[in-house]
Amino acid sequence: MLEVNNFINGAFVPPQSGKFLENIGPASGKIIAKIPRSDKADVTIAIQSAKKAFESWSKTLIEERAELLNEIADQIESNSSELAELETLDTGKPINLSKSVDIPRAAKNFRFFASAIQQFSSEFNRTSEDVFNYTLRQPLGVVACISPWNLPIYLLSWKIAPALAAGNTVVAKPSELTPLTADYLAKLCHSAGIPDGVLNILHGLGGEVGQSLVEHSEVRAISFTGGTKTGKQISQSTAGSFKKLSLELGGKNANIIFSDCDIDNAVKTSVRSSFTNQGQICLCGSRIFIQEDMYGRFKEKFIDLVEALKEGDPKEDSTQIGALISREHLKKVSGYVKLAKEEGGTVLTGGQRIDLNGYFFQPTVIEGLNHQCRTNQEEIFGPVVTLTPFKDEPEVIEYANSTKYGLSASIWTTDLNKAHRVSAKIEAGVIWVNCWLVRDLRTPFGGLKESGVGREGGYDSLSFFTEKKNICINIGP
Ligand code: TXE
Asked: Which one, of 148, 149, 186, lies nearest residue 164 by Cα?
């Protein structure tokens, strides 16, 4: 069994209370680690250490910060096999996904912001012959980075890297369900030479250590990815203190298949956008809308490919569908399949638990539901998608925009005008045309409506983690 500790002021320490939680492996249902059940006392110490470290870290030359971030990226790359194994053990995701997506992306996040910060320049404005203005971008101080369990190191590093690059010090809280790669990352940062207190990582429950962290008066900004319900709670708890918030929340994304599309590409990518990471990615396209005259053909090809997906031990290289994150989540997902049937849906494939020890559930495709029913409105966040036919453009735009979410959408068509027209009308922060999850780290990422507030990525992340200050100088006689 692994033992995880908090990382505070450059040291690995147990929680003040001496209390620990059990961490369960989703593919076995067995305890794999003991992690700190941190609370307010640990938050206080971590914030003190981050606050002290801010004094010198914020004055460090940008080149030096960039050098450290690149060193962390090097360390992630040289330890990628071990990190991938830990990520798979902790999440139940197929090892191939950990190796090809999660770990390389964590290294890329550090490398990307090491480079971006060096191009993130100040603005200068000549107001008149005698007056000029310039804008300083200053780090905020201590910031909180709170990340979820679906892409543990990928999303944690997506927050930590820009925060540090911009000169802030960080107190991070990874999900209590997936602490292992965060702990390993702390060790790598330590051996890369990160100064004491610049990065602190606290483990424990969201409602305890997470809540204390967001409420702490020294925390100037919170970058959070997780459920909409938690996002609302963080908004409410911080409303009076005017902390900067970046909230990346849930989604119920539309995948729109027009009948003029390249059907084979649309089917192949839709299988990925439905079931990658067992559908536990906020960007998965869980509502597939298919134009009437292609519905039958699409359905047949789609089901064939879904049924060919290889389920099983996430440690096997050939596995495509691993375990869901927890027993509780498995219950939630299977509850939605039951609800879908009650709402009049027909399960075309899947719908059952997979007969293995851990929390496995079959890739599930359902048809025959109204776009307004709960199955089509609420975030399931699992391997469950619905197929719904549509007549024309106005109808599918209405369907797509009918939920309270607005994170992403995919559109499949060979008609360029239609692609632009529909993209502009869909209420979502990210639209993919004839592709899915192609990410350029320079581009803004985030959602509308209940999918969140703010944008991360490239200069948007660096803007979030800095405050602009205008300085106006009169050089006249
Ligand atoms: O997320 P939580 P949960 C969605 C998905 C899922 C649902 C709930 O639908 O079924 O959210 O998942 C910390 N103050 N997504 O319950 O609780 C928590 O410890 C401060 C979508 O696992 O939001 C963890 O580190 N922090 C999503 C993080 O918040 C708190 C990815 C996220 O956990 C806190 C994950 C509090 N009061 C789930 N309460 C996406 N957008 O990708 C919890 N936390």
From this structure: 186
Query: Which atom from ligand 1 is nearest to the alpha carbon of 177?
Result: 22
By CB atoms closer than 10 A (0-12, 13-18, 19+), residue 14 is middle
250 Cα: distance to centroid of ligand 1 (angstroms): 9
- For the four alpha carbons of 97, 99, 100 and 106, in that order, the dihedral sign comes to positive
pLDDT at residue 422, rounded to an integer:
98
Cα dihedral 306, 364, 373, 332 sign: negative
CB contact burial 406-420 (16+ within 10 A = b; e otherwise): bbbbbbbbeeeeebe
Pocket test for ligand 1, best of 154, 230, 280, 361 (most atoms within 8 A of CB): 230
What is the token pair recorded at 465?
């983690």
Consecutive 10-residue averages of pLDDT for the chain (477 residues): 97 98 98 98 98 98 98 98 98 98 98 97 91 96 98 98 98 98 98 98 98 98 98 97 97 98 98 98 98 98 98 97 98 98 98 95 98 98 98 98 98 98 98 97 97 96 97 95
| Pocket, ligand 1, Cβ cutoff 6 A | 146-150, 173, 175-176, 206-207, 210-211, 214, 225-227, 230, 233-234, 248-250, 282, 379, 381
Q: How many A from CA of 283 to the centre of ligand 1?
A: 15
Smallest CA separation from ligand 1 atom 28, residue: 148
Closest ligand 1 atom to residue 146 Cα is 25
pTM above 0.85, yes or no: yes
For 337-389, give the DSSP string. HHHHHHTT-EEEE--SB-SSSS--B--EEEES--TTSHHHHS---SSEEEEEE
Ligand 1 atom at minimum distance from 332 CA:
10
From ligand 1's centre to the CA of 148, what distance in Å? 6
Report the candidate in 123, 307, 330, 149 with the shortest Cα–Cα distance to residue 227.
Answer: 149
The count of other CB atoms within 10 Å of the CB of residue 244 is 17
Sign of the alpha-carbon torsion through 462, 176, 316, 347: negative
Q: Is 282 a catalytic residue?
A: yes
Block residue for tokens 């483990």: 203
Ligand 1 midpoint to CA 149 (Å):
8
Nearest-angstrom CA–CA distance, 248 and 175: 15
Cα(177)–Cα(9) distance, rounded to whole angstroms? 24
- What separation in angstroms does the CA of 265 have from each of 164, 268, 432? 40, 5, 13
Predicted confidence at residue 121, as pLDDT, reads 83
Query: Which positions ≥6 away from 79 have C-beta within 8 Å?
Result: 184, 188
Q: Cβ(222)–Cβ(234) under 8 Å?
A: yes
Instruction: Work out which ligand 1 atom sits closest to the CA atom of 148.
Output: 32
